[in-house]
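Forwarding the complex inputs:
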Amino acid sequence: MWDGHPADFDAYWQSTLEELARIPAAPEVDPLPIRSTAFATTYSVRLTSVGPYRLYGYLSIPTGEGPFPAIYFAPKYQSVLELIPQGSSNDLRSRFSTFSLAGRGQRNSDQPFSAMFPGMLTEGINDAQSYMFRGFVADAVRGQEYLQSRTEVDNSRVVSIGNDVALMAAGLHQGASHVVCTPALFFDSMNLATKTGAYPLEEINDYVGSFPDRDKAVAESLAYMDLRGFAPRVGATTLLMADATGGLMDGSALKPVSEAIQGAVTVHDSERSSYKDGMFIEDWIAREFGYEKAIVPKHWQD
Amino acid sequence: MTKSIPEDYRCKVEKPGDFDQYWNDVLSQAAQIPLNAVTVADPLRTSDYIETFQVFYDSLDGVRVAAWYCLPKNRTGRLPAVLFLPGYQSDPPIPKDWARRGYAAISAAPRGKLRSNSQFNPGYPNLLTYNIIDRNSYTYRGFYVDAWRAIDYLLSRDEVDSTRIGVAGSSQGGGLTITTAAMRQEVAVASAGAPYLCGYTDAIELENTYPYEEINDYLRMHPEHRADVESTLAYFDGISFADKINCPIIVNIGLQDNVVPPETGYALFNTIGSADKRLYAYEGHGHEAGRYKHTAVITDFFAEHLKP
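Prediction (whole assembly, two chains):
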C-alpha cells in the first residue's frame, strides 16, 4: 500500500457503509413521460442516503422483456444531473437499463445543500469525518444498490461509468461486473495539485494557500479518498481511462491503481479526442457484454 | 471511416423579417435596467499572481447575474479583456489562465447557472426548452442579454481598454460568442468553438444526443407545437445573428462532433459577415473540437489582436 494510506482506511469506510445500511433507501419512483420514448420508459427516483439525505436520479428501462444489462452513471464532479451523458446516443436506452444519480449538492439533490463548482472538492475537507465526499461516495453506493435491486436488471452485466467515484463505489459495493473509470480528483491529489493551476485540483491549492495550517488535515481527508486505497477491493473488470501520455494521470502514473485492482484491467491513455476515447469506451463495453456492435452517436457511425 | 460532412451545408432556419425589431426591443428594455455592478474580492481564489473577484450585475427581468473576474496582480496601464462564456452543462470556470496571460478576464454565469439561479431555475435538462413556444419568455432571451451585459461590466472598469475586448467560448459558449460578437460592436475579436445554438432544427435531426435531444423530447410530448417551436428558435439561432459579426473571428469544429453536428458549424461559418474569418475543422475529433491543438491557436489569435 502507498505511504499515505490511513491505517484506519477500512474502518472509516466500514462505519460509513454501516451507517448507510441503517438508513432505508425508501425509493420513490415516478414516471417521467417527457423523457420516455417508444423504446424506453424513464422514471424519476428519490432515495435516501447517509445524513439522512434525499437524492434524485433518472432511471430508464428498455421496452420489452428483460432483464437488461445496465449502465450506472455514478455521480461526477459537476453541478448538473443528466439522464445519460451529453453526447451519448439516446438509443443506448433501447439496450441498457440506465441509472444516473445526483449525489448530495448536485442539481435535483441540492436541498438542503447546494454544492458550488468550484468549491465542492474542498467542502468540509479539514476533517475526514465531515468531508463531503464521505457522504457523496455513500450516495454513489446507494445508487448502485438501488439499480441492482431492480428486477429489470441483469446483474451479471452491470457497468459503472464515471470518474473516481465510480471506482470508489465499486470498491465498497461488489455489485458492478464492470467499471469504466476516468480518474480526475483522487489520485495523489495533494502532490498533483502542486503541479497544476487547473480546476478542480486548483481548489486544493486555493484552500491550502488560504489556510496553510490545515494542510495536514487536508492531506488526511484526501487519503481516505485515494484510489490507491480502493483499488485492491475492486473485483470488477475495469477500464481505466488515463490522461494522454505525459499527463498528470497517464497510464504510467496510474500504475499503483491499475496494478492493485483485482479484476482484469485495461488501461487506455487518452488520444486527446473525445471521439476516439468515446469510441474506445463504447467498443470495450459492447465487447465485454457480448454485442457485435456498440450503439454510438450518428456522427461516430461508419 | 465516418461519413463525410458537406462543407456547403445550409441549415433550414430563416431569419425572421422582424428579427432586428425584436432584438432592438429587447435591448431597449435591457437599457432601462441599471447594471448595479458589485465587485467583491475573493481571497480564497486569489493567489500571489492573480486577483479573483466575484461580480454581480443586473440583467433583463431584474435577474441578478454572477461572474468570476480575474486580473493579473502585476499590471500597468489599461489591460485588454476577455469575456469567457460557459457551456450548457458546465459551470463558468474561474478564468485565471487568461489573467496569467495579461488579460482582465470575466467568466459569466447567465441565468439558471449556479450563483445566477435564485430567481430563475428551469433546471437541467429543461433550460433549452423552457417556454420554447414563446419568443418573449423563452430562456435564451434573457440568457443572451446576461452574456452581453458582461461587456457592459468590462466597459465600466477603469483597468480595461475598451478597444481591446475579446470573447471566447465553446459549445454553448461558442453559440453565445456568436450572438455576443454580433450584438456588441465593442467586441474586437472572437473565438467560437463547436458552436451550439446554431441550426437547432437541423441539429435535432442530424444527431440523437442530449442536450439537443431535449427539443425532440418536447416535440414528442407536444407535436402540435412544432411550428411555434421553429418560429421561436429562428429568433435565437446563431445563424440568424451571424451576418452582423464584423470583427476578426475564428471558429473550430470537430468533424465527429456528437453533440453539435459539424454540419451546423459549416452553415454558421458560411453565414458570418466578417471578412476576417477562419474555420478550423478537426478530423478525428468530437465535441472537444480539437481543443488540445486549438488552445494555442486561440491564444495566438487573441495575442495578435489584443496585444496583452
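Chain B is about 35% helix and 20% strand.
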